Fold this sequence. Notes:
Layout: H1 2-22, H2 25-46, H3 52-72, H4 78-99, H5 108-134, H6 140-165, E1 169-171, E2 175-179, H7 180-197, H8 208-236, H9 251-272
Antiparallel strand pairs: 1-2
Amino acid sequence: xxxxxxxxxxxxxxxxxxxxxxxxxxxxxxxxxxxxxxxxxxxxxxxxxxxxxxxxxxxxxxxxxxxxxxxxxxxxxxxxxxxxxxxxxxxxxxxxxxxxxxxxxxxxxxxxxxxxxxxxxxxxxxxxxxxxxxxxxxxxxxxxxxxxxxxxxxxxxxxxxxxxxxxxxxxxxxxxxxxxxxxxxxxxxxxxxxxxxxxxxxxxxxxxxxxxxxxxxxxxxxxxxxxxxxxxxxxxxxxxxxxxxxxxxxxxxxxxxxxxxxxxxxxxxxxxxx
Length: 274
């Protein structure tokens, strides 16, 4: 399974890098929206929603929200910024939900609307954050790629370190395979990306401590995104969100970490003045 996972990642990574670096922001916004909406389609399955028409209605409603945000963004990108801030607020609440992981598990029908709302609050702000990041006048595409790659590095570091050295369970009732050793390995991988990327982002070495701090916060939040999807899968009894990507599961299985990391990274970047 690990070989299939690696081969799939190697096949998809160059296309993702090329899209982030070379697509104009409007086209990237459309591409990311399609991927995010595919993830939300899978999210509906994890909430127990099985009928096709309600699932299509939910995905279509989120597509309309994204279109409205893009239309209303304006020169100062207010709508994108507001959506990203909303995402940061949501993930703060999601951390509480992870702490009380059993919330919403007993009666799936009763909590379905709340979980669907959670999907929108996770997906739309992440889309807004990467669009906001990508259009920055100073190395915007590089910043967007950096945000994606730090999450990839954190995921990869956590996976390989966890497989080889993982002993202490991170969240056994939510995701039994995740370990504290993998968590620290993921943070180390993300930090390495910060060291490599500091000059490519147009920053000086004096900015490295702030960049590493931002990278670590985003990497930790990426774990929260991964765990929250695991919580939904645990509640619904599914192992993966889908079977779209060999060795990785569904689209949501590839996006879950990014959904949490992107708004936190973008808002944190602005707050730190990087």
